[in-house]
Amino acid sequence: MTNRDFQDGPSGSAISLKHLVFYLKQGREIEFRFEGKEYFISNEQKGRTVWSGKSRLCDSYSDEQIDSLLAVRLDGTSIQDIFHSLQGSIQTIF
Question: Does some domain include residue 30?
């Protein structure tokens, strides 16, 4: 994939799972909404973590563990399923 394959989506838009993975592999951080709640996928020295406000929702995962990060469940639905079904609404991409 190249930068031309995926453009930054406007705030409030849904992106595909492939698009999300592309951003994660680039090292980007992502704020998104799902079922009225806002979540943040951070990229820190320890790895990637999913947050809701100040609450950490999972362990930290390295870039080699993106599949484990995508398996994290939010309100009973995995991040993978949220973006596969276009239910996640992007707020900000850093």
Answer: yes
| Domain membership flag for residue 12 | no
Three-state secondary-structure class, residue 49: strand
CA-nearest of 30, 50, 41, 45 to 90 is: 30
Whole-angstrom distance between the N-terminal and C-terminal Cα of the chain? 19
Q: Tell me the residue range of the domain where 58 lies.
A: 17-93
> For residue 1, what pLDDT is reported?
45
In a domain, 32, yes or no: yes
59 found inside a domain: yes
Over residues 38-66, the pLDDT tens digits come to 999 999 999 999 999 999 999 999 989 99
In the chain, the amino acid numbered 52 is S
Task: Please indicate whether residue 12 or residue 54 has the higher confidence score (pLDDT).
Answer: 54
51 versus 8: which is more confidently predicted?
A: 51
**Rounded Cα distance, 3 and 93, in Å:** 14
| Domain count along the chain | 1
Phi then psi dihedrals of residue 25, to 5 deg: -70, -25
